[in-house]
Amino acid sequence: DAHKETLSFQTEVKQLLQLMIHSLYSNKEIFLRELISNGSDACDKLRFEALSDDALYEGETDLKLRVDFDPEARTVTVTDNGIGMNRQEVMENIGTIASSGTRKFLEALSEDQSQTAQLIGQFGVGFYSSFIVADKVTVETRRAGLGAEHGVRWESAGEGEYTLETVERPERGTCVTLHLREDAEEFLDDFRLRNIIKKYSDHISLPILMIKRDEEGKPTDELETVNKASALWTRPRDAISDEEYTEFYKHVAHDFEEPLSWLHNKVEGTQSYTTLFYIPKRAPFDLYDRDKRYGIKLYVKRVFIMDDAEQLMPNYLRFVRGVVDSDDLPLNVSREILQRNRQIDTIRNGSVKKILGHLEKLAKDEPEKYSEFWQAFGNVLKEGPAEDFGNKEKIAKLFRFASTHNDSDVQNVSLDEYIERMQEKQEKIYYITAESYAAAKNSPHLELFRKKGIEVLLMYDRVDEWMMSFMDEYNGKPFVSVAKGALDLGDLEDKEEKEKAEQAEKDYQSLLERMQKVLEGKVKEVKVSHRLTDSPSCLVVSENDMAMSMQKLLKQAGH
Ligand code: ADP
Ligand code: MG
Questions:
Q1: How far is the CA of 390 from the centre of ligand 2 (A)?
Q2: Coiled coil: which residue ranges (predicted)?
């Protein structure tokens, strides 16, 4: 039955649409990129599902997109013969804000209205961008493999409601028709549409077809391919412009912003594969979400296999986006197979090395970009030493900390830089962890170090304490927390001072005993310290105990 129903958008969708139309008004043309991107994704999905069920092709294996316009009806139409959607899928995908990313986005929006435009940019707008140029959008779709009677028509003016009905649709795939607003009639133009496609969608590997026009601009019966239609990563590096790399990033990462940096490599040998990785500019909302969506897309011989192939990238590099295309994996590879596949391990190890190397180079050649990177993803990278023992040293090389050397909360001191500045007899890397920069910087534990002019790294991110428990040394130099245990400065110690301290210990023996009694049950031990210069006393944890900040953290968590 064709039963037609009228459904409401979630209230947030309405809000989102209004914001979007407003903030993207000067950048209307991106609707076409978003619709083409979706059509291309849909074809990728069909190709993948058809690997195990050939019948889904319904005898038509040429996957393609098509863009049409009709000046009389004032419509622009984007059609694909990809996977299509059934009624349920239409409701879930374009009737509601179902994805957790979108919900998070909206939460962030309501928290901080002032940053709306930026947030929208960061989030990406997808299908809803249709309403920037259209006052009515019609989607007709049929899922591959279902009968023609299972077509679905979705229609909405973008104002809070949409209708859904079952229609007859012999063609598989999806057709999106935009009924243009009066101020968007500029898109009823062959030349304009072709230019937009070239600008944003040249990298799409499927042909994007438009009707060929004669010299007078009259439509002919022929179709022609408007884009380059070859997978971008298969092309040689020097044949790809920065703009093309950037547009491809927006497509694979579903991001609206430009990437920070990218690396494109072809590996040949016992295994052949191509990787194109991107470092985004900003952390996505779901960086710490376990069911985050986008990561690395896996292709085998140019055929899309899966999104978010988590086996290809360790967790601490989960912010990396891009494509791995293997020439050797079987086409019917599944997630289960990926989990214990030696070829995958090789690709993953190679990729990690490349990315760490790339970041190192970025830090050297483009320090400003690197500091942007560190701000966005430093805390994720700090998960590295725990997860990837083999690359610990390489990862630590990328770390940046605040330090007593520049007395600022900017994290820009590398371990190499610290070592270079070490005093003559200094053998250790001194650091302190605390809850905030201010707490670290003002810690009485630093007094002696300041007096002696010994640099101390100031760590005040939540992960630092945990991360340092995996770091014994760097470049042969052990790490020492200045807030833990007896302070052993080794050769940096002043002999005279040491003797003075030992004498003081004897002199104050009875005072110490009295204090110990008063504080019984509250402290383990009261000692004379020579680590202080101005403060009368400080709390110290013993060598093997957790640092204070960690103890507080656990207490907050209810331990
Ligand atoms: P995204 O592409 O980032 O997932 P969109 O708003 O562009 O977000 O699209 C939302 C969802 O709608 C897609 O994930 C997909 O499931 C579905 N969709 C959109 N366009 C198509 C299409 N042409 N064919 C099949 N599914 C589609
Ligand atoms: Mg999309």
A1: 37
A2: 494-521
